[in-house]
Structure formats: C-alpha cells, structure tokens
Amino acid sequence: MRYVLKKLALLLLTLLIISLLAFLAFQVIPGDPTTKMLGSEATPERVAALRAELGLDQPVLARYWHWLTGCFKGELGLSYSYFQPVETVLSGKIQVTAWLSGLAFLLVIVLALPVGVLLARFEGGPVDKAMTVLNQIVMSVPAFFIGILFTYLFGLVLRWFVPGGYVSWRADMGAFLRYMIFPALAVALPKAAMCVKLLRSSILQELDQDYVRTGYSRGRSRGSVLRHHVLRNAVIPTITFLAVTLADIVAGSIIIEQVFSLPGIGRLLLLSISNRDFPVVQVIVVLIASLVVIINFLADISYQYIDPRIRLDR
Amino acid sequence: MKKRRNYNLILGLALTCAMVGLIVMGWLWTPFDPNAMDPASRLQSPSLTHLLGTDNFGRDIFSRVLQGAGATFLIGVAVVLIGGVCGVLIGGFCGYYGGWLDDLLMRSADIITAFPSILLALVIISLIGAGKYRIIIALGVLFIPSFSRLVRGEVARCKSQEYVANARLMGAKDLRVLFVHILPNTFPVLLSSLAIGFNNAVLAEASMSYLGIGVQPPDPSLGRMLSEAQTYFFSAPWYALSAGCAIVLLILGVGLIADGLGGRRRRDRA
To answer: Does any domain span residue A198?
Structure first.
C-alpha cells in the first residue's frame, strides 16, 4: 500500500509538471493572439480590453494558476479561433477518439493473444513459420497506409462504408461502429503484430525454464504446461507492452482520424496547430499526456497483483 | 534458433542494400525528371516507359518514389545520428559518473520515453513550425532520451567489469576508460536499437508529412506523396501503392536487420 501511495504522489507531481510545461511552452511563442482575433487594424483600446478579458495582462504564473484552477472547475480557457470555451469545442470529439482508441486496443488484445499463444504452442511448424513472416511484414506497414488501403478495399470496392462519411453515435450506434471498426483495425494491426511477436518470444523464453521441464517430467502435456504455468509468467512483459501500446494507439488515432475524416480530437489538434489556436492545443496535449501517465501508473500497480515477487521500489 | 537469426540478418541486409542501391541510383540518375509535368500522359498505369505509372500531373512515379525515398532515408539517418551521438555522450557520462544529475536526467528520460514520440513531435512542430530541417531537429531531440537511457544502462553494467579496473590500474584516465574501453562494448546493443530508431524516425516523418505538418512542398517525401496520392486512389491506385510499398520495404529491411542483430532485448523498465 505504501508503494501505491508513493507511486500516486509521483503521478500527481508528474501531472503538475506536465501541465506547467505545456502551459509555458505555448506562452513563449512570439505573437499576440489578439492580433489574430481582432485583425491588425483594431484600436489599442479594444486590444487592451480583449487582453484583459483573456487575462493576458497578468503575469505568466498567475495565468497558469488561473488556468489550472479553472481546469478543475471544467473551464479550460477560450479558443482563439472558435471564440468559444475550449470545453465546448472539445465536447463530442473526445468520445470519438475514445471509442476509436478503445476499439483498437480491444482488437489488439483479441487478435494478438490467441495468435501469439498458438504460434508458441506450434513453434517451428509450417503455420508458425508462415505467420512469423506475415507478422514481420504487417509490423512494417504504417497504420495510415493500412487505413488508405482499407478505404480503397472496403470503402470504394466493396462499399461497406462511405469514405469520408461519419454517423454520430447519438444518431445510430450500429452505423457509428461500422464507421469505427475499419479505422480501429488499421491502428490495431501493426500493434497486434508487434504484440504477437513479443508474446511468442516471451513464451518461448519461459518454456526453457526449469519448472517447465519439471512439469513435463510429471507427465503433463505441452498444452497443459502452457496453460497452467507458462502463460502467467509470460504475460508480464506483454502487459508492459500493452501499456506502452495504449499510448501509441491514442497517438495513432490522431493520424487515422485524418485518413478516415473522423471528427475526433486528432483532427481538432491538427486544425488547431495550423490555426495557432494554442489554448486548444494545450488542453489536448495535457489531456493525452495525463492519459499516458495514468496508464503507466496503472500498469506499474497491476504487476504487483499478477506477480507479487515484483517490487519496483528501489 | 541460431540459424534463423542469421536468416533474418541476411534477408534484412539484402533488402536494405537493394533499397539503398535504388536510393543512391535515384540521387545520380532517374528515368525521368521527378518534377517534369507532362499533361499528355496523366494518370497512366504502369508500363515499360513508366515503370510505376504516372501521377495526376503526368510525372513519372518511379522517379518520384526514388527521390522521395532518398529524402525520407536521409531524414531517418540524420535523426538517428543526432539522437545517437547525443544519446551516447549523455548516456556515457551519466552511466560512468552517476550522481544527482544522472538521477535527474534518467528520471526525465523515463517520463519522455513513455510518451508517443509522434505526439511530442507534434507539440515541437507546433512551436517551431514545419519543414524538413525542423522535423529532423524535433525528432532528433526526441530520440536522445531513449538512446541515452540505453547507453547509460550498458555503461553502468560494464563499469564494474574487471577489464575496466585493469585499464584503470594501467593508468588510463576516466575519458579513455569510458570512450576506448567501455563504449565499444555497448555497440552490439546500441546498433540494433539504432536500427529500430531509424524505423521509428522514418515512420514518424512519413506520418507527419502525410498529415501536412512534416516536410513541406517542394521538398519530396514518401509521406507527402501518400497524402497526394490518396485523392487519386480510385483512378490511380498504383500511385499510393508505390509510395506506401517503398515505406514498407524500407522499414521491413531495417527491421529484419535489427532482429537479426539480436534486437529482441526487452526494454528494462524501472
């Protein structure tokens, strides 16, 4: 329990540092947002009024404090290009990215775990050899290229969905999922291939251990030893990998949303970067960064329950 | 097991040599001028004159892929060089001397490597702007932590070995021990992670250029070609396929090399 508390304190500290860095980074950029919002011919009085309204006349740390406390109240600042609160701009977009990432993560697990275990089970056989080659190739294909291929195959040739189309989950959940499954699969495939490779090799490494030989000597079959002893040990590196992968999947969703024109956080982020709409960029960055840190925290904690021998505190 | 590993390495080396050969050829000579437009031969399918067909401006795709692959390859190499050299220096000194600076730097490196590099690259690009050289700098800086963490671990491990003590007894100074005796022993591990780093750099560059925030026109890049090709995918699927397959082959070759070098070392965490 002390370990968990220590990790939790470290987590909060990291989150604080990340939010401060993200805030400061976008403050040092030259250029005054008021010029963009009002145009270059605004009167000094109007500029001053808007600066006061945005809080830009205050010192940086005061603004950071104001922004941070605002975040806890659900006020994330004012978007420069939409002239709306950031939380309004974000609403509805987070769900799209969350569904996409969640689905992709689920697909990685559903695809990778059985395949990885089966390949290790039938190591050296023709299926294993063929799949290992295929795996290596899939690993090398960038997710956005898979996305483009899917758009062509399933969108233009088979017409299972309309490329560039989108149905809100509020309107029709089934249609929404149909539009989500291909982008999710595009993100998931390369990651699943990496996971299969890792799982296969870590199972094979475990199969060399003494306890496996003992299992065989007591008359157990390969499948039984795998199920009862090996999997539990081999799953630890896989969990580490999955934690890193979840973060990668969220980042990958940003790119895939662009390929399939899905109205998620990723497209908003790219649009805001090109519009230099920094309050929005800042919030999205902090949001994703917090997610990454929290996932890693959860992964660290979960090792303890899977394998009590692991004590990560030094 | 031993035999299969060599097999990976041989295949990877062959593929990479072929790709690098084509890229070098692209620098010296291409069948057509990659930028020459020819409205008469728009969107032609692959033929003997145009090996991979032509694009919407009638430009020869094979020449353009060669040029784009060359640019992408150089960016990948430059990123790995920046990350590798800085990583070796920082990791080497941290591992050798230790101390509070080592703790601080490695803690920061832990945090930075936890983030998807494409996200951090997006942030840096939104701060300093897009463009070929800015991409190289952004990605290069982002790759420093992972390399320095790796080198640090290896140096710290080698430091307690006997040959280091022997070298010291023979009067070698710290810098000599570090650079002449310890660092060469980290190369086997470093080499395969440099290859993996190269792949990540190519992937990140291609993704960012595809999104329009990487390499800017008129500079060539495979990622940028893909985003242009997507518009014409129905009328000219060979355009996107050529650019995409070039990326895949580049990554596949180097990935196999990394594998063959024994790059299956798992990342040590915490």
So the answer is: yes
- For residue B27, what are its two tokens? 């620098």
Per-residue pLDDT reduced to its tens digit, B41-70? 777 777 777 777 777 777 888 888 888 898
Contact B116 A151 (CB under 8 A): no
User: What is the residue range of A201's domain?
Assistant: 86-271
Asked, as a colleague might, if the bond just before B116 is cis with ω within 30 of 0, I would say no
CA–CA distance, A263 with B83 (Å, rounded to integer):
35
Distance from CA of A99 to the nearest CA of B (A): 19
State pLDDT tens for residues B197-243: 999 999 988 988 888 888 887 778 888 888 888 888 777 888 888 88
The answer to whether the Cβ–Cβ distance between B248 and A137 falls below 8 Å is yes
Domain definitions of chain B by residue range: 7-22+60-269
pLDDT in tens, A109-151: 999 988 988 888 888 888 888 888 888 889 889 888 999 888 8
pTM attached to this predicted model: 0.84
ipTM: 0.84
Q: Does residue A254 lie in a domain region?
A: yes
Q: Which of A165, A177, A225, A233 is nearest to A202 (CA)?
A: A233
What is B7-22+60-269's CATH number, 3.10.580.10, 3.40.50.300, 1.10.3720.10, 3.90.1150.10?
1.10.3720.10
Q: Look at chain A and report how many structural domains it folds into.
A: 1
**Angstrom distance (rounded) from CA A58 to CA B268:** 45
A281 contacts B255? CB cut-off 8 A: no
What CATH number is associated with residue A193?
A: 1.10.3720.10
For residue B4, the distance in angstroms to the closest alpha carbon of chain A comes to 10
Which are the contacts of A37, defined by CB distance < 8 A and separation ≥ 6? A50, A80, A83
Closest CA to A95 of A162, A176, A151, A183: A176
What is the predicted pLDDT for the residue at B262?
Answer: 67
Q: Give the closest of B123, B237, B252 to A152, CB-based.
A: B237
- Whether A111 maps to a domain, the answer reads yes
Pairs of CB atoms within 8 A across A/B: 105
